[in-house]
Amino acid sequence: MQNRKLCGFLLLSLLNISFLSYANTEEPLDYHSPENILKFADHLIQQGDYLRAAGEYQRYLFYQPQESEQIQYKIALCYRLGGNTEKAIRLFEKLLQESTDRTLTSSTYYQIGVSYFLMEQYAKSARHLDKSLPRITDGRYRAESQQLIGLSNLMQNRWLEAEKTFNSLMKSEVLEVRKKAAVYSKYATQGTKLPTRSPFLAGLMSTIVPGAGRLYTGRYSDALTSLVTVGFTGWQAYDGFRRDGISSAKGWTLGTLSGIFYLGNIYGSVISASVYNRHVAEEYLSTLFIEISF
Fold it and tell me: Residues 164, 265: contact at Cβ < 8 Å?
């Protein structure tokens, strides 16, 4: 019995020694090989470490220059995802001058539009994509570019144009675009019904009664200030002319101030209405970013 145990122990020891000897003969992993550099760069992207990933892709490109277009696209995308959108746009535009891959070109045009959108340059994003649509041959990127044009119009409060774009995309062959278009179309439709204030009416009301335009836009303290300021300086100017006649220094001084305050009250009411409309739209659209993902 003891002999059997001893034989088993010796056999197990021999197998362990053989395994370790084999393991030691395996070649060590080469972390600086192009293949492993590329794997590491892809891993960094998955981890959200975009700028480090861009550096690794650049290192890979040094070893594999024949893959220039695809890797340059990934580098530009890393900068866009990493928040350096201006550099991303420059790299994407450079790629457009060199690339012959139609799918890659379509994606690049789209990514430039996304970059402008993320920089809150909505008008520029829409113009770029509208101009680029004839060159975007890939069906998916064409649909997503049209969707981004609609979003750019939405962010500029161009509700009807946005609604028209999204309604047309509800027939898109791209399922994801079709689903989102239905959601975005509702935003555009509801946007036309937002409570707004007319700048013209606000100005007219303050022309008739100082401060009334501010009252119309919900600026109650400003309305009271305008009424008191214009009313007080106007009354003091009247008092000066009543006592000293047309040559009254007090009358002319306070009359001039009253006129300035009066005109400022009208202009301020017009601006107040515009600000009110902008705040209402911004508050409404703030929920839209929950639905957007680039």
Answer: no
Model confidence over 239-268: pLDDT tens digits? Answer: 888 888 888 888 899 889 989 999 999 999
pLDDT tens-digit readout, 98-109:
888 888 999 999
Closest by Cα among 221, 225, 217, 220 to 264: 225
Under 8 Å between Cβ of 212 and 201 = no
Q: What is the DSSP string of 76-111?
A: HHHHHHTT-HHHHHHHHHHHHHH---HHHHHHHHHH
- Mapped to the 3 state alphabet, what secondary structure does 155-169 carry? HCCCHHHHHHHHHHH
What's the rounded Cα separation, in Å, for the pair 15 and 13?
5
User: Does residue 25 surpass a pLDDT of 70?
Assistant: no
Report which of 65, 62, 28, 57 is spatially closest to residue 40, judged by C-alpha positions.
Answer: 57
Whether 133 shows a pLDDT value over 70: the answer reads: yes
Please give the structure tokens belonging to residue 170: 């509800």
